[in-house]
Amino acid sequence: MQQAPPLTFDRYRMDLPNEQLWSGQQAIPLTSKAFAVLRYLIEHAGQLVSKAELTPVLSWPKLRTYEG
Q1: What is the spatial distance between Cα 16 and Cα 14, in angstroms, rounded to a whole number?
Q2: Could you tell me the sign of the dihedral formed by the alpha carbons of 38, 39, 40, 44, in that order?
Q3: Is 14 within 8 Å of 7 (Cβ atoms)?
Q4: What are the residue ranges of helices labelled H in 1-68?
Q5: Which pLDDT tens digit goes with each residue over 11-44?
Q6: Does 59 have pLDDT greater than 90?
């Protein structure tokens, strides 16, 4: 089975299978939700991503968002 290549941007690298963000040799701790949001935004770089588009894609049960 072939492993997905990491996503890279600026000096950061996203290890997709392990859900880890790296800056050089240093791991940057992220929650699963934060990692998922960052991954989606990176995969849609240069596009406007609305809350309405983002929420269902991430399919978090019982997620409530509020306008603030």
Answers
A1: 6
A2: positive
A3: yes
A4: 32-43, 51-58
A5: 999 998 999 999 999 999 999 888 988 988 888 9
A6: no
Q: In whole angstroms, what is the distance from residue 51 CA to residue 37 CA?
A: 11
Contact 15, 6 (CB under 8 A): yes
Q: Report the alpha-carbon distance of residue 37 to residue 49 in Å, rounded.
A: 11
Torsions phi, psi for 34 (to 5 deg): -65, -40
Sequence-distant (≥ 6) Cβ neighbours of residue 20 within 8 angstroms: 14, 27, 28, 30, 35
Q: What percent of the chain has pLDDT over 90?
A: 32
Residue entry with tokens 């890279």: 8
